[in-house]
Design goal:
2 strands
């Protein structure tokens, strides 16, 4: 019995020692990628272009909605005035065509914005990912986690398991490696395509 007790004690001490050794060598950091992106000139530039395109599309869509509303009012007036059946049928067909045009335009404009975002964002993301990997390797990090939520892939909370303190935030060092010396923005607003698409 004494032998078993000594053996268990020895095993527990070895496990404890290996856990302490593992904890001492484990270096974890996190990056606020949205803050990094929002401070990158190439991200800022293409987001301005997307905002401009989105605004143009919204203006056209508003014009289409206004026209649709006018046609509805004309149709209702024709019904009230007891217009002939062929006239009512013609106005109803016109309304359906305008409605279909609105739906198609909205879908096409959203696809265009989404496509432009993806085309321009992919190289920016790849650049940031490469710098994060380089920084992690150069500075002995075991893991670097993303701080913000990625709703598009189904996350419901930030991808950060644990941070002992906020000194492990390496976002500013990543920006320095990207050549951003004076961050002008923190990512307080949601970035990305979803803020430009109509829900």
């Amino acid at each position: 019995m004494r032998y078993i007790f000594l053996l268990l004690t020895s095993v527990l001490m070895q496990i404890s020692a290996s856990r302490q050794s593992f904890a001492q060598t484990l270096k974890v950091g996190f990056v606020d990628q949205q803050m990094v992106y929002s401070n990158m000139p190439e991200f800022q530039n293409f987001m301005k272009e997307i905002e401009a395109s989105s605004a143009k599309y919204q203006d056209i869509l508003k014009e289409k909605y206004d026209l649709y509303q006018q046609k509805i009012e004309l149709y209702q007036k024709s019904v009230k005035d007891k217009a002939a059946e062929p006239i009512l049928r013609d106005k109803a067909t016109e309304l359906e065509n305008i409605k279909k045009s609105i739906e198609e335009f909205q879908m096409n404009s959203e696809n265009d914005v989404r496509s432009a975002y993806q085309k321009n964002f992919t190289p920016v993301k790849n650049k940031v990912d490469k710098v994060i990997a380089e920084y992690g390797k150069e500075n002995g990090y075991t893991y670097i986690f993303r701080l913000q939520i990625e709703e598009g892939i189904g996350e419901s909370r930030p991808f950060l398991l644990y941070a002992n303190d906020l000194n492990d935030d390496i976002s500013k060092q990543i920006m320095l490696k990207l050549g951003i010396t004076t961050p002008v923005k923190t990512a307080e607003t949601k970035l990305g395509l979803s803020r430009y698409l109509k829900k």
